[in-house]
Amino acid sequence: MKEKIEKFAMLCAAFSIIFSVYYFIGADSRKEKMINEARAKMRIESENKIEKQLTQKLGAAYLDMEKYSAWASRFKLALKDNSLNEDPDKDGLRNYLEYLHGTNPNKADTDGDGFSEKSELQNGFDPDDDGKSNLQVQIKIEKLGIDAPMVWSKSTSDAEMLKDLENGVSHFHKTASPGQIGNMIVSGHSSNYSWARGDYNNIFKDLYLLETGDEIIVNTLQKNGRAVAYKYSVIKKFVTTADDQQVFAQSEKPILTLSTCWPLGTNLKRLIVKAEIEN
């Protein structure tokens, strides 16, 4: 009888030990599962927060793009509250702008042409090309039915600019690029000689109809397919002389200046429309 009791006690002790081991292993497993679930929840919350911030920054355009979280994962970027505004490659472009333009956030010169992405964008070049091609740009003013290509003028020579105006509206040499800080000046014909070449001889003939608050869209397209729409809102318009310095005045924020000869059929003065960036 004593032997049976001792044997039973030993079995109970063994069972207790085994139960304790399995319990603690199970507890550790449950704890690890809870930790993993908490981490997954935090990651999803962080991703959702970032996606919301990007939607606010980029508007509807963001809906057609690769998710930021997937893009960040490819470049091994941490997803945290301030990650959109970080600049790991120190090229002057924050992560959300690197994402927008499809450039490498860990490399200041994605295309290896010797110029930083920020420098290329400021000067109207494609940041993901070889540094020799400009961004493709379209100027769209829905109110006036205008949707015209912008030509990057390489000179301030009247002859050269008139040649450029045969193919669209003309970006005044060395003024700001789309969306960049400074004064971006774009000129277009309001009228021209009937025999003059080109399809844009009166592209800005209705510019006088623009009023404060009207929208001007500047669409840019890169070689990698990234398209960015900069929205400008009209703040004022006036008629002045061709050499009036307020037309060329610099700005500490992105400004768009549209210019055309005025009155129609003359080049006596200039009709100027100024607009500031919305988003």
Could you characterize the architecture of this molecule?
This protein has 279 residues and is an alpha+beta fold. It has a domain at 136-277: Sortase, Chain: A (Beta Barrel). Helix content is 32%, strand content 22%. The chain is built from 6 helices and 8 strands, in the order ααααββαββββαββ. It has helices spanning 2-58, 68-74, 95-101, 117-122, 158-164, 245-248; strands at residues 136-141, 146-152, 169-171, 182-187, 215-221, 227-240, 254-262, 269-277. An 8-stranded mixed beta barrel has the order 1-2-3-4-7-8-6-5. Strand 7 (254-262) and strand 8 (269-277) form a beta hairpin. The longest helix is centred in the N-terminal third of the chain and has 57 residues, at 2-58. It starts with a helix and ends with a strand.
In short:
With about 280 residues, the chain is α+β, with helices and mostly antiparallel strands. It has helices at about 1-60, 70-75, 95-100, 115-120, 160-165, 245-250; strands spanning about 135-140, 145-150, 170, 180-185, 215-220, 225-240, 255-260, 270-275. It is about 30% helix and about 20% strand.
How are the SSEs ordered, and which strands pair?
Layout (H helix, E strand, L loop, with lengths): L1 H57 L9 H7 L20 H7 L15 H6 L13 E6 L4 E7 L5 H7 L4 E3 L10 E6 L27 E7 L5 E14 L4 H4 L5 E9 L6 E9 L2
Parallel strand pairs: 2-3, 4-7
Antiparallel strand pairs: 1-2, 1-5, 3-4, 5-6, 6-8, 7-8
CATH architecture of the domain at 136-277: Beta Barrel
- Biggest sheet character: 8 strands, mixed, barrel
Give the termini distance in whole angstroms: 90 Å
Mean pLDDT: 84
Biggest β-sheet: strands ordered side by side in the sheet: 1-2-3-4-7-8-6-5
- Molecular shape: elongated
Instruction: Quote the beta fraction.
Output: 15-25%
Number of contiguous helices:
6
Q: What Rg do the Cα atoms give?
A: 30 Å
- Judged by helices, strands and strand pairing, the structural class is alpha+beta
Question: How much helicity do the residues have?
Answer: 25-40%
Unreliable parts: none
State the name of the first-level CATH class of the domain at 136-277.
Answer: Mainly Beta
